[in-house]
What we know:
Elements: H1 2-13, H2 28-41, E1 51-56, E2 59-64, E3 89-94, E4 104-105, E5 113-115, E6 120-121, E7 155-157, E8 163-165, H3 170-175, E9 183-188, E10 193-196, E11 204-206, E12 227-229, E13 241-244, E14 253-258, E15 268-269
Parallel strand pairs: 6-8, 10-14
Antiparallel strand pairs: 1-2, 2-3, 4-15, 5-6, 5-9, 7-8, 9-10, 11-12, 13-14
Helix pairs in contact: 1-2
Amino acid sequence: MKHLWTSALALLVAGSAWAHGDHGTGSAKQAERQQSWWLDLVPRAAAAQQMEIDESQGLRFVRADGLPNHATGHFPNRFNPNSIAAQRYYFRMPLKPAKAGRVAYYRPNHLFGVALNGVVFDPNTAEYWNDDRRSGWMIEALSGSRPLGIDQNNAHVQPDGSYHYHGVPTGLLDKLGGRGKPLMIGWAADGFPIYFDETLRSSWRLKAARDAGGPGGRPDGTYTLDYEYVRGLGELDECNGRDGVTAEFPKGTYYYVVTAKFPYVPRCFVGTADASFVKQGGPHTRGGPGGGRPPPPLGR
């Protein structure tokens, strides 16, 4: 079922502007039949206009222009001077991902994953306490403490024009059939699927006091370092994921969950993230959220 699901998506998007040949999918009649199987799972409107997925040699390759397939806020706007522009994304990930044995937090220059519509999940920001990236006190995009022009989809635009999600992609959820049920919404950089399930709770909470050497005051969610992970507090683990059975994976899988509360989009991986999701070079690092006092971030 898993192979069928991904193959059908590849065929659905093969009619995009980037399509060039059958990519080993078989006859036109077979493609039409598999395409209908995909349409039974996800509404046609949920597929990006320019997105292509291939599977070979144990890998899934995703090429997308990153343009959202749903309404967005106005960009540029008062707090975000950037306009949405097409991208040239080309990602790869394992078809059969495996847990690495320990979690790996990633730097701000690392994307978490890509949604089914080709828009990326990029929860980190370039904003820090006193504008000092070396401090480690990264400002949370959805905290509202510094207006960043976030729209109704918990998304905004980078200087290069890339539209990206910082939290629950509400417009995509509407395209996928609404809420009230677990919905697969994308793939993480390590190959595990990403879901939205409003019945599952994060195991992160605000700390009782802020760490020393920072802005002082009480934790209020302004900074990533305002939060701490408490095992068993919710149904989700440190990377905001869990093992379970889903409609797409009836035999079970590990999957990540995007939540309405922190961490919103997961900040670490249980598997090995592919380097194609690094924006400006440099591997992801281990540590706490926001890097847990990591080496100086490499930039966005």
